[in-house]
Write a structure and sequence with these properties.
single chain; alpha/beta; N-utilizing Substance Protein B Homolog, Chain A; 5 domains; eight-stranded mixed sheet; four-stranded antiparallel sheet; globular; disordered N terminus; binds S-adenosylmethionine; transferase
């Protein structure tokens, strides 16, 4: 322990109401109480207010454009549940040239559904849009906002089964107001064609037939995933399992909350709070601090439970990786790729104030988030952050630990239901680069393990190339390590034939995650 404590010194550780409108499109009443700077600025500046355009569609269209152009994440929520931006409506005004009325809670839920769903179903929706345009060139020449409006309309009609003619009218109005009358006419024509085809049960969808490639292309469209993922999963899992996985990825994600007992919050207390907030929940079958919720995350966020550190959003699949680590009071643990800190914080809570988790990460910003969260979780006394590239850090380090976690950067193929946009951002080429990085990080992490000590390698991927194959390649390079089967640490249902931990989204209704326990010979 003393040796590991040196690590921090050696490597410069950083110790530890809706607006009142007098007349349509005129300036809103300024007697609106608001604490948010963005909203206040908007009120003080002259602006155009349009109350005919539905706010959730305007916000969804703008958010979708920002996500596609790289300016926002599909899954980030602030404590008002209003997305990653400080003021959603300010983006709308800047992008569209007008704002709408403020979003109500039900609008916010619609924005979340529409943005997440439209992103997930993008390939499927675009296939229908292309089929209903005159030709592919018309589709290719669609301006970004018009394309997003069409995608929203298609998604609302085909996947949300919303009343079709209301959807047509609303999206036509948005296109006319935000773009020009001609754009509205185009949206009208295409959406009406779609409504007729849907009513006649004759949507132009591909058939799964022909050779492997053709079948993969058809499945990729029908279940809206990149072709390379379909081919990879068909190879590893078979077609039926691959389809089930894609269905899982396209469903609304569920979340788990971990009660923070370091803040004196037991799971029973968290359950009482969720009952008060009327958030439906289920007790975790596998981990005693965890509770699952399918809906109501925004309510939890708005109630301040996360901000106050009373609980965290953490998937049980990640909690089970910590079970594989089996952290005990008094231990010194090195967490090699720690930020933003989900596992560090959970491990730290197991230490009961005795011991230390050295949290290493190359990303300073994410490490800062870890430090701040550690404070609100009351575990900052047992966490030391180290901003470093693990690969160079270990070159200078003669120190070792008995427990080292490498939660490696990975494709995230196990968490696609939560990360709606990730499937479109990941490329096949990334897999090779990630595997090389994982090998380098495994080699580096192994240098920190004491004889007899344990190295846990984990990912949030279900891809054998990033999991079993990385461990097998590591063991060939490092015969001084051997596998310690994880059956003593996680339920038998999660243990693979090789003795590794694997959560399977379809089988366990959790994110996909992997962990291997490797012991260094004495
Ligand atoms: C999967 S995330 C870790 C998630 C974290 N363990 C948790 O539970 O919240 C991988 C992390 O590895 C970090 N990383 C990538 N390359 C690294 C390197 N060479 N050295 C240290 N950290 C690195 C990234 O910055 C990222 O935060």
């Amino acid at each position: 322990m003393a040796q590991v404590l040196c690590l921090g010194v050696l490597f410069c550780a950083q110790t530890h109401e809706p607006l009142k409108i007098s007349e349509r499109t005129r300036q809103p009443n300024l007697n609106v109480s608001t604490s948010r700077k963005g909203r206040l600025n908007r009120l003080l500046k002259p602006h155009k207010l349009n109350i005919e355009v539905s706010p959730h569609r305007a916000v969804s269209a703008v958010r979708l454009m920002r996500i596609e152009l790289g300016g926002a994440f599909a899954d980030l929520l602030n404590d008002k549940g209003k997305g990653s931006g400080d003021n959603e409506m300010a983006y709308v005004e800047r992008t569209l040239g007008f704002c709408t009325r403020e979003l109500k809670d039900q609008d916010l839920r619609l924005v979340t559904d529409i943005v997440g769903g439209t992103i997930r179903w993008r390939r499927y929706l675009d296939h229908l849009i292309i089929s209903l345009c005159h030709d592919k060139n018309t589709y290719k020449s669609l301006e970004p906002l018009l394309l997003q409006i069409l995608r929203i309309g298609f998604y609302e009609i085909v996947k949300l089964n919303m009343p079709p003619y209301a959807v047509v009218d609303e999206n036509v109005r948005l296109a006319k107001t935000a773009l020009r009358p001609g754009a509205g006419n185009m949206v009208n024509g295409i959406l009406r064609k779609l409504v007729l085809l849907k009513e006649g049960k004759s949507l132009p969808l591909p058939k799964v037939e022909g050779d492997d490639r053709a079948q993969a292309r058809a499945l990729a469209t029908l279940y809206s995933h990149p072709v390379w993922m379909v081919r990879r999963w068909t190879k590893y899992l078979g077609q039926e399992e691959a389809i089930n996985l894609m269905i899982w990825n396209n469903n609304d994600p569920s979340f788990s909350l971990r009660a923070n007992h370091r803040r004196g919050v037991s799971r029973a207390a968290l359950v009482t709070r969720l009952n008060e907030l009327k958030v439906p929940h289920q007790i975790s079958l596998h981990l005693q601090e965890f509770v699952r919720i399918k809906t109501g995350l925004q309510t939890v966020i708005q109630a301040g439970l996360l901000r106050e550190g009373l609980c965290s959003v953490q998937d049980e699949s990640a909690g089970l990786v910590v079970s594989v680590m089996d952290p005990q009071p008094g231990e010194s643990i090195v967490d090699c790729c720690a930020a933003p800190g989900g596992k560090t914080l959970y491990m730290a809570s197991h230490l009961n104030g005795q011991g230390m988790v050295f949290a290493v990460d190359i990303n300073k910003g994410r490490l800062r988030i870890l430090k701040e969260t550690a404070k609100s979780h009351h575990v900052d006394g047992v966490i030391t952050t180290i901003h470093a590239d693990l690969r160079t850090l270990v070159n200078n380090s003669p120190v070792k630990s008995n427990k080292v976690l490498l939660d490696a950067p990975c494709s995230g193929l196990g968490v696609l239901s939560k990360r709606a946009d990730l499937r479109w951002n990941r490329k096949l080429e990334d897999m090779e680069q990630l595997k090389n990085l994982q090998d380098e990080l495994l080699d580096a992490a192994s240098l920190l393990v004491n004889p007899g000590g344990v190295l846990v390698y984990s990912t949030c991927s279900i891809d054998p190339g990033e999991n079993d194959e990385r461990v097998a390649a590591f063991l060939l390079r490092h015969p001084e390590f051997h596998i310690d089967p994880v059956d003593r640490y996680v339920p038998a249902d999660f243990v693979t034939d090789n003795g590794f931990y694997l959560s399977n989204p379809v089988k366990h209704s959790l994110d996909g995650a992997f962990a291997a326990r490797l012991i260094r010979a004495l």
